[in-house]
Specification:
Elements (H helix, E strand, L loop, with lengths): L5 H12 L14 E12 L2 E13 L3 E3 L8 E3 L6 E3 L6 E9 L3 E6 L8 E3 L6 H5 L9 E6 L11 E10 L9
Parallel strand pairs: 1-6, 7-10
Antiparallel strand pairs: 1-2, 3-5, 4-6, 7-8, 9-10
Length: about 180
Amino acid sequence: MKKMRKGTAVLLLLLSLCVPVVDVSADVGNELTECTVEYIARDGETETLLARETYRAPAGRTVNVPHREFDNYIKEAGQDMTLPVTADGKAEKKIYYTRLFYDRITFRTEGSYIPPIYGCAGEDVSDAVSAVEEPVRQGYIFKGWDRELPDVMPEGDYVLNAVWEPGESQYTVLR
């Protein structure tokens, strides 16, 4: 096995110490200060904090802000993902995300179509739920839903399946 050069060994050591959060390639002697990144969901005019993370990085440097994944959200395009780190430790960056879809109540009927009810978790949907008509399926009698119809919008996709009982049918035999 060949001997490793001193420069290569130092580079490998530095790579093993790298934190994947920010690019901290700085000159030796720079003081590390705190910087904060807030990940914010925008929904119309409402903003909701998804996460807040505090990192340490060299003062006076510009560092790369890490991209985060959040269920049901996508990062808004075109945002500057760098953060100038200030010596006072008050550097802050806000990264904005957009909701992919809203919470909804979905109706599976195997018969007539009932459109989903959309909203936000915790929102009163009793009026919309009470306006839902019973589904129709030829040759069957609708017995209800497999789950309770909610008055408040649940989080995520709340699926209701129609429960059916075979009905009576009349046939005419032609000869």
